[in-house]
Amino acid sequence: MTAERCYLDHNASAPLRPGALEAMIAALCGSGNASSVHHEGRQARALIETAREEVAALAAVRPAQIVFTSGGTEANVMALSPAWFARPDRVRLFVSAVEHPSVLNGGQFAPEDVEALPVDDHGVLDVDTTRERIHRWRVMSNGAPFMASVMAANNETGAMQPVEALAVLVHECGGVVHCDAVQTAGKIAFEPVVRSADLITLSAHKFGGPKGTGALIIADEQLGYARPLLRGGGQERGFRAGTENAAAIAGFGVAAGVAAREMPSAGQVAVLRDRLEEELLRIAPDATIFARETQRLPNTSCFAAPGMQAETLLMAFDLEGIALSAGSACSSGKIERSHVLTAMGVEADVARAAIRVSLGWNTTETDIDRFGAAWTRIYNTFQERRRAA
């Protein structure tokens, strides 16, 4: 095994930025509770509010619109709630078929009130079918309220979603739009998402902040949340009770500030991604790169080679010192067929072979060279064994 590791799995979790680590250590050395009025408490409060300003600046919103959570999943579940509406017993939730499980499961909605929307073969939401489904619901329910949730970009393929077009449609019909922007925040500018969606989810560890902290952006401040997930001391303006994780939030803020300043480097990341894909196809011309013909995140490449299984590939790359991911990996660590690729109409055996490479803030040309060299060895070994068989 190569001594020095090469990490190419940023969509799962990006390495912690050094400045974020320093901010967290400094916060951990403090002893105050941010709800206390003494000096130590005010210091803790100052750390949190500074971080709130930095996250708000990244998202181009006001600090008061940021509600800190324990991560993207909690923010999604918090956002997907009938409690935003005056008649919570009559609300419908529409979600795209390629969402994160925390959205596909409907958050706080009952299963029978959740409807999945189809995507095309690139994994992009079918807006025309969505329009038909929403209009049908409005007629059947006599104009009952509804919510629609679509991610800004897919975590497996990187495919960008038509958030603006969906928002126009939903708002024309009087609905509320939620957008899971976990994979776009800190990687590309996402002001159009903020202008379009009413509720937006962020997660710190996807762009160099610590795990275990995220945020829900309440872009439409006319929304009133009547039933918080966590009720207690009234922290986060009553939206989310519980003593704030000041250290993690401080790291979140620093990572957001650095990501905002480094945003122009997204183009450089795309150059690295494209170079990786060129090398991939040079060695394996029969490989498939998913969502390549649509707008994607600049850092993401999801591919499959005929006859090569994802689990075998992951182990082979790991032995080469390279960390990748199968987009279909579940919480148990097992490789399962990707619901995203299935929704795209990808054949089962191809979907089970899919591997995801995701670059990030510390990816270098050397990393791409190492991937290319490893892929050459792995693919050639596979071909030799197949010929021998």
Structural notes for this entry:
With 389 residues, this protein is α/β, with parallel strands linked by helices. The protein folds into 2 domains: 6-15 and 264-388, Aspartate Aminotransferase, domain 1 (Alpha-Beta Complex), CATH 3.90.1150; 19-261, Aspartate Aminotransferase, domain 2 (3-Layer(aba) Sandwich). The chain is built from 13 helices and 12 strands. The protein has a 7-stranded mixed β-sheet with strand order 2-8-7-6-5-3-4, sandwiched between helices. A 3-stranded antiparallel β-sheet has the order 9-10-12. The protein has a two-stranded parallel ribbon with strand order 1-11. α2 (39-59) runs parallel beside α8 (246-261) and α5 (127-140) runs parallel beside α6. The protein is globular and about 70 Å long.
Features:
alpha/beta; Aspartate Aminotransferase, domain 1; 12 strands; 389 residues; Aspartate Aminotransferase, domain 2; 12% strand
